[in-house]
Design brief:
This is Lipoprotein. Residues 1-33 form the signal peptide. Residues 36-75 are annotated as: Disordered. Keywords: Signal. It comes from Paenibacillus woosongensis. With 188 residues, the protein is an alpha+beta fold. The chain is 20% helix and 35% strand. The chain is built from 2 helices and 9 strands, in the order ααβββββββββ. It has helices spanning 2-30, 60-67; strands spanning 82-90, 96-102, 107-112, 118-133, 136-141, 146-150, 157-158, 170-176, 181-187. Strands 1, 2, 3, 4, 5, 6, 7, 8 and 9 form a 9-stranded mixed sheet that branches. It is flat.
Amino acid sequence: MTNYKINKGRGLKATTLLLVMSACILLSGCAGKAQTGTQGNAQAPGKGTAATNQNNTGGQPDQQKNAAAVSETEGLPSGVKVQKVLKDISLKNNYHKKVELLTDGGKRITITDPNGGLVLLNLEYEGTILEVSGRKVTVQLDHGGQQTMTIPDNMTIEDDDNLGLNKGVEIEWTVDADGNIQSVELDD
């Protein structure tokens, strides 16, 4: 009977310790909750995106300084302007992320480092395929307008559901600051 009481006491202590540790882990993760969004796909700065950072001490003065580091037309096709700012946040280690809606229906994503230096500048487009001719695709963009693009032959299209380039299929693609298509993904 005493062995049972001892084992029951140990089990209760172990369960309590596990609950306390779980609560600490969950609470420590809450500080970064407001920053998640599209940041989940971030890579190292050398690969074109923000690094995984250790603290969250960004403030308003840094945001204003970093926002000025990217001009209104930097990385945009000719004639395209910023329509409105969708997201403007500080990331960890004073990195800054800004997502802007463009007049051509795309989004410009910029990430700057604490010194205001540009780490990432990409244009993202999402829409539904209207017409296909080989690798030339006309897309109705989600944020208005149409775009026709030619997907390079050496570009691998992410197509997990084997949808193919067909009318009615949702498509997302990313373009770098030089206008080169970086990735293409198909969704159902």
